[in-house]
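To assess whether the prediction recovers the assembly geometry, we first specified each molecular entity separately, as shown.
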Amino acid sequence: MNTPQKEGDFTLMTTLSVSALAQSFNEVPPDNIIFGHTEVMQSVRARMGKVAAANVPVLITGESGTGKDIIARLIHSLSPWKVGPYVKVNCPAIPGTLLESELFGYEKGAFTGAVGSKPGRVELAHRGTLFLDEISELDPSLQSKLLQLLQDGQFCRIGAQEDKKVEVRVVCATNRQLEAEIEAGTFRQDLYYRINVVNIRMPGLRERRADIEDLCNYFLDYYNRKFNCRARPLSHEVLEVLQKYHWPGNIRELENLIKRYVILGHEEVITNDLVAHEPDFLSSEISFDGPISLKKMTRQCVRELERKVILKVLQQHHWNRKQAARTLGISYRALLYKIRDAGLPSNRALRLRQAEKNAMATAPTSGAAAD
Ligand SMILES: Nc1ncnc2c1ncn2[C@@H]1O[C@H](COP(=O)(O)OP(=O)(O)OP(=O)(O)O)[C@@H](O)[C@H]1O
Ligand SMILES: [Mg+2]
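The predicted structure of the complete assembly is given in tokenized form:
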């Protein structure tokens, strides 16, 4: 038995401008933050600007957390249909059996429990934008219905005798490789060509490292205001660590990290978190597209391994570098050099702050031994 799903996971709204959009979501960062100043994001911006005005389907691809949702909303707000509705459907969030009725609606008596008729989200998006998130999750029968919609703007409510017509701009997003899904037989090739008239690829955060500092400052300010906190600007050392990290969760990961830092108030939150997510160097860095220099790779792996060991030992000794050097069996100076070389935080700022706190909290004679 099919029952209509609750409305919780979809967004239906009317927008007038980008700033109105920003207000209504209260979350959309300003343009200079969204696009930063890296070349790769400037070409995303240019492509998005061009495609927004044209009534063609757009496919936004990119890893999780790269900002596909934000770009879909911006495309709508810059399009001629911006005064129309923006309807988002998060395909995996709606169980397969319900998705058809949610998308295309149904007529009274179409199935047990269909006591009245109900329009689907496709209809609700009339003269606006329909954003289909995680499009690869559509099952084959829904893929055919979507294909028809894209071909002639027609669709059929479940249980209806006749087709209906809508004018709707379709934007899809996925973090999967649809070509691979086509090869595996789970995604229709003809649908792929229809939704992929223009492709916008969102780069991973590691491809736009020059934007990391501005993003950090933005989130720091945002969450300081939101939680009424006063977390200090990040130290140069921690910023350097953030610049070197591989960011598997992209901007979402960075945002969550800064949020935790703001709430908990000390930089160790960041360094500890990143160490826990250190990449498996071998699997992430070797490209099998061309020749591999064994000597070079081995050197890199050794460096990476050394960096990990140093980080672990530093953590165990609460960043006391003298003790860490002793444990590692190297001189203090050699460790300082390696810390700098590996782009690890010296945590001087952190220790100074700790010393300040200790001095205030304990007797005037307390001399916290810095290493
Ligand atoms: N360019 C950006 N500037 C600032 N914040 C961003 C940017 N891109 C994404 N974010 C923030 O990162 C988080 C994830 O973004 P979003 O949901 O758009 O990613 P996504 O690519 O749709 O991820 P998923 O594939 O998991 O759905 C959001 O909180 C968003 O506000
Ligand atoms: Mg998304």
